[in-house]
Amino acid sequence: MKALSFKIPKTNNQSIRVQVDKQKYYYDNFHYHPEIQISYILEGSGTRIIGNSIGKFNKDEIYIIGSNIPHIFKSDKIYYEKKSSLISHSISIYFSEISFGEKFFHLPETQSAYELLLNSRKIIFIKPKINDQIKKEFLNISDVEGFEKFLLFLKILDQLAKTKNSKLLSKTTYELRNTEKNGKRINDVFDFVINNYNRNLTLEEISKIANLSVTAFCRFFKERTRKSFIEFVNEVRIGEACKLLNNQDFSISQICYEVGFNNISNFNRKFKEITNLTPKNYRRTFSENKIE
């Protein structure tokens, strides 16, 4: 298992780094790095965990992740199948607040961008419109160098700062509270849950994964995610349920048991707590194209 801390490779003549990932599935270790990350998901779907925010990710979504916020984009199981022809494709921009000098983002012309960077500590989600110019600019920025790359980056940053299609995924600013050892531990827990959410998970079982007593594990998990373990499991399950609800082939009752709940009333209650909608209303709203 790789360490939690992750080094973004770059050369001395780069103030920003653009990385194109195109493979079967995304890098699947929970990790962090000091650079701010802006990622456009061009292809792929799965579960995302960014700081203390948990949910599904899909194509044509943008995530702005602040410095040192642990995160993982875990592709759906189908992407790991040997015979799968599916591709996970994203373009990510990495930079720091002082990449262009300590006062750059305090200029009058960059104030909206600076506010965007401040909010990145709360994790920003953006769903671009289908005809948005920004997708073309993300595709172009990986093909240019030097001053042209810098100008295109500023244009992307300005458009992201002004978009009305953004929302914060966290109510609070995330603070890193992980050592390398604890990073591996939380990574093991997240990986286990993502791969086993659809069956009964006990605190005794997961505590052994973390190599802690039940009491110590509960305290450890709460301190680092600001939620209980069962809250985390339920969010992963509801995220998967949302995906299945988009498919009319499954009944709500089938989905309830498929994602790991053992009775429909508890499923309905937890679904509404997390999404503010009942499963039935979520499905109806999605079918009417009101959820983007």
Describe the structure.
It is a single chain. It contains ten helices and nine strands. The model has no long low-confidence stretch (mean pLDDT 85). It starts with 16 loop residues before the first strand and ends in a 5-residue tail after the last helix. The protein is globular. The strands form two sheets. It has a six-stranded antiparallel sheet, with helices on one face. A hairpin with a 2-residue loop joins strand 3 and strand 4. It is 40% helix and 17% strand.
Helix and strand content put the structural class at alpha+beta
Strand order of the largest sheet: 1-7-2-5-8-9
For the record, give the distance between the C-alpha atoms at the N and C termini, rounded to a whole number: 35 Å
Could you give a short account of the major beta sheet? 6 strands, antiparallel
Measured by DSSP, the beta-strand proportion falls in 15-25%
Q: What is the helical fraction, as a range of percent?
A: 40-55%
Low-confidence stretches: none
H and E string: EEEEEEEHEHHEHHHHHHH
